[in-house]
Amino acid sequence: IGLLVFNRVKETTDSKILPRVSATRQFRRAIELLGDNTRYRRFISMWSLLLIAGVATPFFAVYVQQQLGGSKAMIGVYLGVYTATNLLVNVFFGRISSKFGNSRIMIIASICGLIMSISVLLLSLIAVPMKIHAQTASYLLIPVFVLSGMRTSGIGVSGNSLMLDISPIPERSLYVGFTNSFLGIVLLATGLGGLIMNTFGFQVLVIVTIFAHGVTLIQGIWLQKSLRH
I want to staple 178 with a disulfide (CB 3.0 to 4.6 A). Which of 30, 88, 170, 211 is the partner? Predict the structure, then answer.
């Protein structure tokens, strides 16, 4: 059904079509973009860090279950909360984006991720010393997945739109292609999150995400200011 609906979309014809060039030349031009376009360089580093900052999220429920004795049944609750939040917040983020710009949504997503990671780190530090009950620890993780859903929704709503805001119209296909290829490599690299946790521990992995979210917040604020001028 989704495919049938998508095929009903009528795309407008591009007003400016660049001459066809080789893949090698396209790659060289893409590399040049990183050096010439400061906004794009900040943008792609911000989005890359947001992907890296999400590496610890799959381990939140696992940590509470294995280390704090949380219930396995809560995993379904976390997934439901995450999905519902993602869907509901999409509507509000769309309105905020149209009114205040896509960079504002990226900033909100970074703040949500930062609060999420800090909350999990605090829980991991105080749960055992304060003898927090396993069921209580499981419930305390619910707001974390609300924030995770908001974070994911913010990235989804504003990511590609912000890239189009930055890229010149004749070069948009190049920006889109290079961005997706580059972020695909970054996404594959996030699989190292499990290795980091096994080697250095869960808390170190969460600290990495806190740092990444903090840097993305700074990048987002800079990008918002630059787009105003």
Answer: 30
DSSP H or E stretch at residue 49: helix 38-53
pLDDT classification of 229: cutoffs 50, 70, 90: low
What distances in angstroms separate CA 99 from CA 104, 154, 169, 221, one per listed residue? 10, 15, 22, 17
How many other CB atoms are there within 10 angstroms of residue 69's CB atom? 13
Q: pLDDT tens for residues 118-133?
A: 999 999 999 888 888 8
Q: Give me 181's structure tokens.
A: 């290829």
Distances (CA, A) of 28 to 19, 21, 32, 38, 174: 16, 11, 6, 17, 11
What is the C-alpha separation between 51 and 106, in angstroms, rounded? 13
Give the whole-angstrom CA distance, residue 22 versus residue 25: 5
Rank 30-44, 89-103, 144-158, 181-195 by mean pLDDT and report only the highest. Answer: 144-158
- Tell me the whole-structure pTM to 2 decimals: 0.86
